[in-house]
Amino acid sequence: MCRTKSRSNLRPGKGFIVTSEADPATRVKGQVREIAPQADLATRTRRVKITLVDPPLSFRLGTIVKAVAGMDAGAEIELPSSALLERDGKTFVWVVDAATRKVSMREVKIGARDADSFRVAEGLAAGTRVVTAGVHSLLPDQVVKIQDTHL
Q1: How far apart are CA 64 and CA 91, in angstroms?
Q2: Distance (Å, rounded) from C-alpha 32 to C-alpha 82?
Q3: Which of 98, 92, 82 is nearest to 143 (CA)?
Q4: Secondary-structure breakdown of the chain: helix, strand, coil percentages, each rounded to the nearest 5
Q5: Homologous superfamily of the 2-69 domain (CATH)
Q6: Domain 77-137: which CATH class?
Q7: Is 137 strand, coil or helix?
Q8: Could you report the per-residue pLDDT of 36-95, keeping only the tens digit for each?
Q9: Structural domain spans, the chain
Q10: Residue 123: which of 110, 138, 104 has the closest Cα?
Q11: Model's pTM, two decimal places?
Q12: Cα–Cα distance for residue pair 132/93, rounded to 1 Å
């Protein structure tokens, strides 16, 4: 069970990759089973239940996990709005070269967009590492720190 503030792209059946906080190398697929119809008045979050596919024994009740939305094959790539850079009427993202950790700007075509996220329709391949914070202060070939290399 998790809580979320944005329901716009979340729906029953949406896939997730779930990792254990104690052992991030342990990864399990999951699917949204249920979304609370109303948000909590105090936190403005909704309860979301995710069913895990063949969870290991280490995923007992009460285990702290991290759930990251997965992508369906052939689907557009969804990124947080903080990754989008707009200049001269064009839309870009910063991509990271895994070997050098240097960034470069890549023009992308936006498929859909809301306040929290956007979908890349063209210009980005699945699995490409994209910068999601500080995009307005980067320079070409700048070296960046890569977080959470397990996902």
Answers
A1: 37
A2: 24
A3: 98
A4: 5, 40, 55
A5: Efflux pump adaptor protein, beta barrel domain (2.40.30.170)
A6: mainly beta
A7: helix
A8: 999 888 888 888 899 998 888 888 888 888 888 775 545 568 888 999 999 999 999 999
A9: 2-69, 77-137
A10: 110
A11: 0.52
A12: 9
